[in-house]
Design goal:
222 residues, alpha/beta, single chain
Length: 222
């Protein structure tokens, strides 16, 4: 099945109010162009260098999302191109984004990545870390960062109860934080190719789907 067909099939399965991020990481520009021709405008990348290269070569109306773990020394590279950074997992990273966004006089939207999975390898704020940062209220001083919501990844397991529990935990964080950040706080990014229907059932407003659109990741092309 062609990319356009798979893309349209995914879109048809999404309820109103749920945004699709087509995860194009590791896939060639030609694959992005095919999805673009089919009407997709939001794409997710996990490597700053790859996002930059694609953003410079592909149509300017594409909205690029950074979904992978982000090192502070790569923030500057992203600033001219990224529309939303999903994977903000520490106060240090928040501060670096604030600094680099101020440098080029723009406001950058971010999501707070919360660690809920039963896997230590996955990134994200622990509940204790997030509570501590919120308690300092330093987030109220941000002028070039806008906190738009929460992002997370469920445990990699076939146990649907565990996956649903992870999504419910993320929704709990979203509901808890929304009163603090106010009206702009409107995005709950959870759900990928294998589990996005469960994520939507638990309240996801944004799903990150890659392999169901583009096929297996093409690591050899990196």
């Amino acid at each position: 099945m062609a990319i356009a067909e798979k893309l349209n099939e995914i879109k048809a399965s999404l309820p109103a109010g749920v945004t699709l991020v087509a995860v194009s990481k590791t896939h060639p520009m030609e694959a992005v162009e095919e999805a673009y021709a089919a009407g997709q405008r939001i794409f997710g990348e996990s490597r700053p260098q790859e996002l930059k290269a694609k953003a410079e070569a592909l149509p300017r109306d594409i909205e690029w999302h950074m979904i992978g773990h982000l090192q502070t020394n790569k923030v500057r590279m992203l600033m001219p191109y990224v529309a939303l950074i999903h994977s903000v997992d520490s106060e240090r990273l928040v501060c670096e984004i604030e600094k680099e966004a101020a440098r080029i006089d723009r406001v950058v939207d971010i999501l707070l990545e919360v660690h809920v999975a039963r896997e230590e390898s996955k990134t994200g704020w622990s509940g204790e870390e997030l509570e501590a940062w919120l308690g300092t209220e330093r987030w109220r001083e941000l002028e070039h960062v806008r906190v738009r919501g929460v992002m997370g990844i469920a445990t990699n397991t076939d146990d649907e109860a565990v996956v649903r529990g992870d999504f419910e935990a993320l929704k709990g964080w979203f509901d808890r934080l929304k009163p603090l950040f106010g009206e702009p706080f409107d995005t709950l990014s959870m759900g990928m190719s294998d589990d996005y229907p469960a994520a939507i059932a638990c309240g996801s407003t944004m799903v990150r789907v890659g392999s169901k659109i583009f096929g297996a990741r093409e690591y050899q092309k990196q």
